[in-house]
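Review form for a predicted model. The reviewer records the input and the model, then writes brief findings.
Reviewer: anonymous (R2)
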Amino acid sequence: MYFRIGSDKAGTVSIANLVEGNSGAFSAHGVCAPVRNCIFLLEQIQQERQLSLPCTFIEKDPDRRMLSEGFLRAYKAGEHARSDIFLTTESLWGRLSKARVDDVRKGEQALRFLEAFRDFFRSHNFKIVLHLRRIDLYLESLYKQEVKAARTVSWDVLREKTSAVRAFAFFRLLEQCFGPENIIVRPFERSQLYKQCAVQDMLKIMGLADYAHEFSVVHGNEGLHRDLMETLIHMNARHGKVASNSALLSVSSRLKSEFDFKDVGSILDIQTRYELLEEYKEFYQYLAGNYAKQDSLFLEEIPSDQHLSYSLSSERAALIERLVFQAAQAEAVVCSAH
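Model under review:
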């Protein structure tokens, strides 16, 4: 059982997309890869055991729910007893590493949850694969997700949720449940990923590197353009969520390809980055020494402060706002036609 948690997307290459488009290729190598996000399985465990976790897991996508239900029925019937299984989700690490599992009672509930998940698949030996993004880059990514979802964004709240104490506490629970010998930690940096690719890295871990050519790598979308993100911050405050994620991504793509607007990916200043890395120093040193077998867990350079000169003109912001409304209206027309 390969249970992959942590960051999923590197550029436009997604491990979730790998699962979704390659069930046949996985099956040919004796691997069952049922669904791109196994959050429904987490939901079922939480409900069946009536565990009071500091977060909830709910599968909102009906197609993924149906696939997951089918997989569970098949597993209970013994259909996958002799197959390797590949499950992946960002939600487990993403939510429980931010929860107050450093609190004794909440930590006990989280451990019972992990043990219930492990015991449900007792006929398989687990390998937990954690692809971990450096905290400053992860925080920027989280901020962008909040903006895209039109949620109220506060750097202070995000920093509190992503504290090193909480992340380290949850990692200790993973060790306690599955055993350190069954945990693989991979720094989510291109320079450290096998062939500089998240998908290739995962296939290598599973012993399938020599068969990578048999798998179709479906490329997804890049993150939102900085100009669009800054425009959305003001639009969200006035209108709430105006357009779907797919509509926003289409606008973002147009800004790069059609308008040739240069993107500025970095947001945080260098002082904040160093503060975050200092907070995470003990956790990262532990992972580097015990799992990565190297002096430093992350090796890539920290971005400079050059991006702090970024500014968005009112004219460009007005243009982007019009594009967002147009994309939302076009999508509404298509939906009404169906």
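Findings: Residues 226-262+305-337 form one domain.
Further findings: The mean pLDDT is 91.
Recommendation: see findings above.
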